Amino acid sequence: MARHTFIRNTTSYWLWIGIAIAILLADQFTKVLIVSTYQLGEGFSVTSFFNIVRVHNEGAAFSFLANAGGWQRWLFTGFGAIAAIAIVWMLKQHAQQKLFGFALACVLGGAVGNVIDRVMYGYVVDFLDFHYAGMHFPAFNLADSAITLGAACLILDELLRVRQGR
User: Fold this and answer.
1) pTM for the whole thing?
2) What band does 136 get if pLDDT is binned at 50, 70 and 90?
3) Is 129 helix (H, G, I), strand (E, B) or coil?
4) Torsion angle of C-alpha atoms 127, 155, 85, 118, degrees rounded to 10
């Protein structure tokens, strides 16, 4: 590998790690604000379709396995930690790929944010509550938003890669 390629890949790698850290810090900052301000179930209405409300999710997405008895905490913590290690490795290998790197950085920052919650609290702190006509979308947080954005970018990256291959 030429020296300039090494420098470019290293610089890109640290950019993606920096984005992941920024997401992680924003996620943890908002969760600390929620935990220090509201009791479980408390919050306030922001608009006619959006509330800030403190919710605890002991499961995974959409509260999957939330009532499984506690073992799921460590299962999801382990999955998150393994995913973070794999993502760091992939970022190192593909640092020059902009959309792919951004997608992985989003997933990494969000995954680590939720792993920290599981280790510290035993659950993930959610607080963004969207609703319409009496129906509530499951509450979520900034980490979940980053993971979703990252997943969408991964799909877009793959679609663009397939399209370029034609």
Assistant:
1) 0.86
2) confident
3) strand
4) 20
